[in-house]
Amino acid sequence: MNVIEEKKKKRHIHRTFLFTGIILVIVINAAAWAAPWISGKTGWENWCDWYAEHVNPVIVAVFARFGNLFSFSIGELMIVTAILLILAFLILNILLIFIRKHKGYRRFCRIYDLVIAYITVAICLIMTGNCTIYYHCSSLPVNEETEERQYKVEELQALRNYIVKQCNEYSTKVERDENGYITYDGDMQEQARNALQKLSGRYPRLSGYYPDVKHMMFSGLMSQSYMAGYYFPFSMEANCNANMYITNYPATYCHELAHLHGYIYEDEANFISYLACIDSEDPFFIYSGYLSVLSYVDNAYYEAIGEDAEQYLANERISEQVLSDDIFLLPETWKKVEDKAILSTDTVNQASNTFTETSLNLNGVSDGFAAYDRVTGLLLRYYDGDLY
Which of 2, 124, 179, 224 has its CB surrounded by the most CB atoms within 10 Å? Predict the structure, then answer.
């Protein structure tokens, strides 16, 4: 075999591998999109549910356990590496326009581009297996004793007043320092794992292995994006913002770990986080759970009554203590973030919102960010028969 034929054979092998990977991505995603429809028409089990219940635990047990050997976020390192690889790809190929005659450089660019092609296909396959399939699982069962229905404003009012009352009560049950800030001496990571394991009696998918939630190095950017946590499917890690006020951590830990176990929809992860926290028997976790849904329910009620201030104020009042606890970052932390920021918070937040909205839309979540608010509907269903 001469050199030319050998090169052709190698190119054919690479093209075959890449093409096979692309076809796999397309076929698996198409099958996932079709799964709910096929299940509804035939009565067969949704294969995405089977995947989440049987394959996901194996993936988590292997990859999340490996990632937990490192104290830093592997996913964060991957993001930085990806940015550098993309920049190098652009620079190398732009330079190729001007130095195309250099045989060695052309060969280097071909090899580099081939590596990027393989990485891209691998990313698509991993994203499919560790994320997009879960968007086509069956909806989370919430309250099997009642039928799904439209809820009245009075029922939303009852839910809202209940959440507010619980927040007001538990704001007095947590430990605080001399400045009134909440303190916690327990192991939040362990408590979050225990809370989710306890909930696995209701939702079996929550059983199994849980890694630590990683605090991200670039939490300044997360703060500017108003992002509390991030599930990274390529390293099977749950990450969170290290700058947040302490009340956010329990609910965020449980939320991101719920994603890790296949509950990929934001409203479902919010709901699971809420249940895990309020059933934990730890006053701080319970308080965090109620706080995590307060703004969703309160805003939904305010909108439902046509933003009538007089009618709104006739309800259970949110205490001043709760209002001061229900914050993303402390003022002094925000100042540090802004002082170190390279880009303005508005710019970062807008870019982050656009990316998140696009990602949700591509995965079939047509209402984008509004998906977070749907936890109110799940709560209305959950308390149906108890509060109203």
Answer: 224
Residues near 219 by beta carbon (within 8 Å), at least 6 away in sequence: 241, 242, 243
Helices and strands per DSSP (H, E), number in the chain: 18, 3
Structural domain count of the chain: 2
The set of residues, in sequence order, having a beta carbon less than 8 Å from that of 251 and lying 6+ positions away, is 273, 274, 277, 288, 289, 291, 292
Q: What whole-number distance in Å separates Cα of residue 381 and Cα of residue 316?
A: 21
Over pLDDT 90: what percentage of the chain?
80
Whether 49 and 182 share a structural domain: no
Cβ contacts of 39 within 8 Å, gap of 6 or more: 45, 46, 138
Burial group, residue 32, by CB count within 10 angstroms (0-12, 13-18, 19+): buried
- Give the model confidence (pLDDT) of 166-200 as tens digits: 999 999 999 999 999 999 999 999 999 999 999 99
Domain match, 21 and 159 both: no
pTM for the full predicted model: 0.89
> Is residue 143 included in any domain, yes or no?
no
